[in-house]
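Standup notes, protein team

Yesterday: finished cleaning the Bacteroides uniformis str. 3978 T3 ii set.
Today: TonB dependent receptor family protein structure.
Blockers: none.

Input for TonB dependent receptor family protein:
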Amino acid sequence: PSHKINQEASTYFIEDGSFFRIRNIELGYNFDKRLLNRIKVQSLRLYTNVQNPKTWSRNGGYTPEVGGSAISFGIDGGGYPMPTVYTIGFNLTF
C-alpha cells in the first residue's frame, strides 16, 4: 500500500506577490542662523523619521517579502513583518 497524500503540485495556495511599501518618511526643520547666533549656536535641526509605516499587499501572510532557497523559492514560512520604527531627534552644533 502507498501512503502518498497530497504529493501532487497544486495552485491552491498561490497568492499575488506584488506589494507597495513606504519605506522611509523624514521631516526636519533647520532653525534660522540669525536666531542661533544670539545663543552662540552654529546650527540646530529637529527631525522625525518613520521607517516602514505602511505596506499595501494582497498577500495573506504577515509580510509579502518571502524568502526561500534554491529548492523552495517563494515559500512563505510565516516570517515576521518589517517593524515600524519611529525616531525623533535633533542635531546641535556649537
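Follow-up from PR in the comments: The helical segments are 33-38.
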